[in-house]
Amino acid sequence: MADFSSEQATQQIRALFPAFGEKSLNEMAFFENAGGSYMCSCSLELLENYLRKTRVQPYGAFAASIAGGKAMDRSFRRIAQALNIESDWIHFGPSTSMNTYVLSHAFAPLLRAGDAIIVTNQDHEANSGVWRRLAGQGVEIREWQADPESGHLDPNDLASLLDERTRLVAFPHVSNIVGEINPATGICRMIRAAGALSIVDGVSYCPHGLPDLGHINPDIYLFSAYKTFGPHIGVMAIRPSLAASLPNQGHYFNDHKPRYRLTPAGPDHAQIAAMAGIADYLERISDMLDQTGTGKSSRTGNDADNANDASNDDEHFRRAHDAIRTRETALMQPLLDWIGSRPEMRLIGPQTPSQRMPTLALDLKTPGPELARRLARHGIMAGGGHFYAHRLLERLGIDPEHGVLRLSFVHYTSHNDITRLINALNRELGA
Ligand SMILES: Cc1ncc(COP(=O)(O)O)c(C=O)c1O
Questions:
Q1: 29 C-alpha vs ligand 1 centroid, how far in Å?
Q2: Residue 400 CB less than 6 A away from ligand 1
C-alpha cells in the first residue's frame, strides 16, 4: 500500500471491522470511540469460534476443553508480544475499573500510616478514587494537579511531590479529556528513582497503537480492550515479581497460580480467547504496510496453537503503532484548525496533533450532552458529559453536569467523516 492515509487504506482498514457493513452504523460518522470502539473481525471470529466450538470449562481432559484453554493461552502470549513484555506480566480482568479496585485491595495491607500515594486530578476516576480511599487507613494522599487552563500535567510538579515516603504513583498515559500524551517513560523512571511504584492508566492511549512497555517500563499498566477493537476485558500488565509480592485476592487454594491471584471475578473465557484478535489485527495492519498483504493473514483465525503466530519479535506492532499514529495525526489537523478558528470554544489540551491523541474535548456555552444530541440529528455519533473525569472538569472550571463535548476518533475514521463533523458543527453553531 502506497499511503496508509489514503482513501484506499480507509477501505482496507474498514473491511476488517464488521460494524462498517451495518447500514445503521455506517450511515453515521462515529466520534465516540473513546467510549468504546468497534470490534475488529479478528476478535469477533475468535469470540464466535470459542462460543460455537469450545464453550466448555477450559483446561480439562477432553478435546473441546483443551482447545478452549489453548485459545485462551494464545491471548496471553499474543497481547504480551504486542506490548513487548513476557506473557507472565498479563492478567485479564473484567474491566479497568474492576482491576484497579482489586489492586487497591491487594496493596492495602502492605501500606502503613505515614506512607504516601500520589494521584492526579487528570485521571478518569478508575485510577484515582480507589487509591484515594486508602486515606481511610492513614495513608497520605498527595495530588499531582493538572493546569487549570490547559489540563496539562507537569512532571516538574511530580518531582516536588515524590519523597522517600512515596509508595505508589497512579497517573494516566493519556487523559480521556485532555488527550495529551504524558511522557510515561520519563515519569516511570522518576518514580522508580524515588523508590516508588508506577500504576499507569493506558486506556486512552492503547486505541491509538499498543505501546512498547519494554521501553516505558512501568510497574503496572492497564487498558480496556473494548476501546481497543477487542472484547470487554480489562488488561493488567504487572511486573511478575510485584504481582507475586501482592497478597492473593482469589481463592486460597489457587495461591500458587499467578494468573488466578489478582482476577477474582474470573472473566469470561470466550472474551479472553478473543483478545488474541487485537494482536492479529495489528499484524494485518503491518501486512498492509508491506504492500504484500492480501487481506488474509496466515497468523489470524481460529488456530488455537501458536504454530502460525509471527516470530517472537514485536516489530509488526511497532510498525502498526507508528502507522496508526501518522494516520491519526493527519486526520486530526483539519479538525484542530477548525477548532482554532472558533474563539467561542476552548479545546482542552494541546493544539498540536503530535502532542496528543484524537480525543478532543471542547468547553462550550452549550452543555456537552445537549450538543451531542443535536449532532446526532446530523448523522454524528459524539458524546457529552464529564466522562468520569469529574475532578478534572472541576479543576478546569467546568461544571461536570454541564460537561464537555467530546469528539474522539481512531484510525478507521475517514477524511470524509471529519468533513461531515465540521459541517454538522457549523450548522449547529453557525458557520
Ligand atoms: C482513561 C480511562 N481510564 C479508565 C477507564 C475505565 O475503564 P473500564 O470501563 O474498563 O472500567 C476509562 C473508561 O472510560 C477511561 O476512559
A1: 22
A2: no
DSSP assignment, residue 311? P
Assess whether the C-beta atom of 383 lies below 6 angstroms from ligand 1. no
Ligand 1 within 6 A of 128 CB?
no
How many CB atoms are closer than 10 A to CB 277?
26
- 414 or 291, higher pLDDT: 414
The rounded Å distance from CA 94 to ligand 1 centre is 12
Beta carbon of 234 within 6 Å of any ligand 1 atom? yes
pLDDT at position 431 = 83
Question: In this structure, what is the dihedral angle of CA atoms 317, 319, 324, 325, given to the nearest 10 degrees?
Answer: 110
95 lines ligand 1 (CB under 6 A): yes
Task: Give residue-wise pLDDT tens across range 285-311.
Answer: 999 998 644 334 444 444 445 445 655
pLDDT tens per residue, range 263-288:
998 889 999 999 999 999 999 999 99
Of residues 230 and 305, more confidence is placed in: 230
What size, in residues, is the chain? Answer: 431
Residue 297 pLDDT: 42
The answer for residues whose C-beta is within 8 angstroms of residue 157's C-beta and 6 or more apart is 144, 145
User: Would the pLDDT of 1 be above 70?
Assistant: no
| Domains identified in the chain and CATH numbers | 7-39+317-429 (3.90.1150.10), 63-276 (3.40.640.10)
Say how many Å lie between the CA of residue 336 and the centre of ligand 1: 25
| Ligand 1 and 203: CB distance under 6 A | yes
Ligand 1 in contact with 201 (CB < 6 A)? yes
Q: How far apart are CA 384 and CA 362, in angstroms?
A: 9
CB 103 within 8 A of CB 235: no
Give CA–CA dist 298/51, Å, rounded: 22
Residue 196's Cβ-count burial label (10 Å; 0-12, 13-18, 19+) is buried
CA of 291 to the centre of ligand 1 (A): 35
What values do phi and psi take at 302, rounded to 5? -105, 15
Q: Reading across the β-sheet that carries 90-93, which strands appear in turn? A: 90-93, 234-238, 220-224, 197-201, 166-172, 116-120, 140-144
Q: Which atom in ligand 1 lies closest to the alpha carbon of residue 175?
A: 1
